[in-house]
Each structure stands twice: as C-alpha cells, then as structure tokens.
Design a protein that fits this description.
The protein has 162 residues and is α/β, with parallel strands linked by helices. It has eight helices and four strands, in the order H-H-E-H-H-E-H-E-E-H-H-H. The chain has a four-stranded mixed β-sheet, sandwiched between helices.
Amino acid sequence: MGKDRKPSPATAGHLPNPAAIGIEIVVAAPAWRRHVPRAERLARRAALVAAGPAMAATSVMLADDRAVRRLNARHRGRDKPTNVLSFPAARGGDLILALGVVLREARAAGKRPEHHLAHLVVHGVLHLAGHDHHHPGDARRMEMAEARILHRLGVPNPWRQA
C-alpha cells in the first residue's frame, strides 16, 4: 500500500545528527575535562535529546565561574556566578555553564557532577525553547519535562529525594 518509510530518529532510538541541528560545544575552561569525564560528549547528548528537531542552533560553553560571573553581571545585573546562563535566539541560543558552581552544587546535593551537568544542559535548553519556572505550575511542568528527558539519558530524576 504505502511506501516504506525509514523510522524517524526518535522512533528508531537514535539521536539526530548534531550538525543537522547545529549543536556546538565549546570548552572554554579545560578543567571541565578533569572534573567531568567526557563533559563535551555528555553536554552534546543532553542538548540533542532536550532540543529535539524544532531547535535549529544551540551552543553550549563550558566555562569557569569568572566568565559566568562577568556575563551574569553584564546581562542580568547580578555580580555573581550562576550554574547556567541561557541566551535565547531564533530557534535556539547559547548556554554557558560555570564549572565551580556546578561542582559545588553537585557535591552539596550528593549528585555525580556528570548528572548535574546533564540536568543543567537540559534545563538551559528548555529555557531556550521558551520554558520557565517563575510560577509554581510552570515550574512543575518544567521539572516534569526535565525528568522525562533525563530518564532518556539514563540520569536519575533530580527532583526525587534519595
């Protein structure tokens, strides 16, 4: 009857080609490689799964606290580093993560740094896609989306108490 169709990447269980949707990973702080095994690969995979086919271009910069502090002060008026900054653009945007903040938060929460990195990349990509958490209902929807995506990545739900 119908023509045989190839399964989509989602139904075939494969990730889309990073070049096809423009995922770029920049390691601005080489210490990421020391503290988070395969940080670039993990960040790319998390961004791909979270972005889906609708997002055209995303860059993820793995930076240090100083760089994130400068950007946070310049763009948000907050003179301190934060875990992840997101800068939306048409169908994508930029994420910048601060190594020191990510490591401190992971340690304080008893989480593996690579799991926390994956969570924050997913969180940032959802912000780029228009999700927010300013209101309780929005926050809950965003947490549920994060948990679903992280499950696909094999990362434990960060919202569940151990």
